[in-house]
From TrEMBL:
One of its GO terms (cellular component) is cytosol. This is Molybdopterin molybdenumtransferase. Keywords: Magnesium, Metal-binding, Molybdenum, Molybdenum cofactor biosynthesis, Transferase. It holds the Pfam family MoCF_biosynth. Residues 172-310 form the MoaB/Mog domain. It catalyses: adenylyl-molybdopterin + molybdate = Mo-molybdopterin + AMP + H(+). InterPro entries: MoaB/Mog-like_dom_sf (IPR036425), MoaB/Mog_dom (IPR001453), MoeA-like (IPR038987), MoeA_C_domain_IV (IPR005111), MoeA_C_domain_IV_sf (IPR036688), MoeA_linker/N (IPR005110), MoeA_linker/N_sf (IPR036135). The keyword Transferase applies. GO terms for biological process: Mo-molybdopterin cofactor biosynthetic process.
Length: 391
């Protein structure tokens, strides 16, 4: 049984980055940059007025000023200022070289038609200076950045209308198990609804990966062989659930070996989700996740997500919060790292939800975070600080 971190590193070490492609800006969200981005101009590109008001020479600020031109955003100034002259200026307009100070409209008083004075002698300059935010040639985004909404204006501002991003892998999802029926069917007394597939497709969709869904496969070796081999024709990654433990009908390891896969992981020291197959055949990869719904959810978050991000050129790091535990926790066995569904209370304390184990999907839907209980820890006292990740 591999430790969590060992298994993760083993899985990540096999990931080869997908070839890069250019996409339109509106399709760049949640893609991963395949090159550094450098800015092609200063920002602001010119000395820019930060206020609606009047631009003048500071040396003339205490004098009556004659308004010689109105400057607005998008207009090139025509006149240079002479002594005791000023521009009427709008926010975003170019501040010409002959002016070094803008005072805002609220600080101005008209003393005669076309003549103003400044009522606030200690006014700031109210100028955003050329290049103060970004210098031409400066690196503004690094390769491997996972593009979020806050990165898009930077790309747009740098004129990168078609960023180069890593490709996304084609992924196929299957559920295996003779007992399974799809959610629209009424299960008979010995059957169970397939909940894993919708969960996994949604976890993939959250990563902007539109996977192909191959349906339910019976626990039947020839059928499994045929379906998996078909899926490999157009999918780099196949994700299966069920049939990965040691029962007579847990056929996935054998089927993958017969397909020529190298099985690199079979069990890892996490709970829930101990049995999990990770296998590789050249540029194809297969995850055989546990059939139990909470286990497959946790395995996806811990292993599949970072792996798919690695294929897309991004080193995924989950945000971990460290907060005090709201009530004491005990467990009998501590040979695995536990992931327990929890919520965060009003006092920012961690509150475990009632959790019966790896089939208890309701516990997961009523929780916002997973609490990590390290291997070897049998009890955690109220108030002790613990690590949680959001789900
Ligand atoms: N002798 C041993 N038995 C088991 C071990 C072990 O170490 N030795 N490990 C247990 C653990 S832990 C887990 S987890 C399960 C994993 O089993 P499988 O991944 O082979 O999954 P199945 O047996 O096919 O199914 C388990 C459970 O989940 C239900 N299931 C399956 N697929 C779905 C689905 N798509 N949607 C909803 N529910 C699903 C299935 O009906 C079973 O109830 O093995 C233990 N056994
Ligand atoms: O590892 Mo299994 O998912 O505990 O039930």
């Amino acid at each position: 049984m591999l430790e969590y971190k060992t298994a993760l590193e083993r899985i990540l070490s096999t990931a080869k980055e997908m070839p890069a492609e250019k996409v339109d800006l509106q399709h760049a969200l949640k893609r991963v940059l395949a090159e550094d981005v450098f800015h092609d101009m200063d920002m602001p590109p010119f000395n820019k007025s930060a206020m609606d008001g009047f631009a003048c020479r500071r040396a003339d600020l205490s004098n009556e000023l004659e308004v010689v031109e109105t400057l607005f955003a998008g207009k090139l100034p025509e006149k240079a200022l002479l002594k005791n002259q000023c521009y009427k200026i709008m926010t975003g307009a170019v501040v010409p070289e002959s002016a070094d100070c803008v005072f805002k409209k609220e600080d101005a008083a008209w003393v005669a038609p076309g003549k103003v004075i400044c009522k606030n002698q200690s006014t700031g300059n109210n100028i955003c200076y050329q290049g103060e935010d970004i210098k031409k040639g400066e690196k503004v985004l690094a390769k491997s950045t996972l593009i979020s909404a806050r990165h898009l204006p930077v790309l747009a501002g740098a004129g990168v209308a078609r960023p180069l991003v890593f490709g996304r892998p084609d992924v196929a999802v299957f559920a295996t198990g003779t007992e399974l029926v799809e959610p629209d069917a009424k299960p008979r007394s010995f059957q169970i609804r397939n909940s894993n597939s919708s969960q996994l497709l949604a976890q993939l969709a959250e990563m902007k990966i539109q996977a192909g869904y191959g349906g339910i496969i019976q626990d039947d070796e020839p059928v499994l062989l045929e379906k998996i081999s078909e899926a490999l024709n157009n999918s780099r990654v196949v994700i299966l659930t069920g049939g990965v433990s040691v029962g007579d009908f847990d056929l996935i390891p054998d089927v993958l070996t017969k397909q020529g896969f190298d099985i690199l992981v079979t069990t890892t020291a996490i709970k829930p989700g101990k049995p999990m197959i990770f296998a590789r055949k050249g540029g194809n990869y297969c995850f055989g996740l546990s059939g139990n719904p909470v286990s497959s959810f946790v395995q996806f978050e811990l292993y599949v997500k970072p792996f798919l991000f690695a294929l897309m050129g991004h080193r995924f790091q989950t945000e971990i919060l460290t907060l005090p535990l709201g009530k004491e926790m005990n467990r009998k066995k501590s040979d695995r790292m536990d992931f327990v569904p929890v919520n965060i209370g009003a006092e920012m304390e961690i509150i475990p939800v009632e959790f019966h184990g790896s089939a208890h999907i309701n516990a997961l839907s009523g929780a916002t975070h997973l609490l990590e209980v390290p291997k070897g820890v049998n009890a955690i006292k109220k108030g002790e600080r613990v690590n949680v990740r959001s789900i």
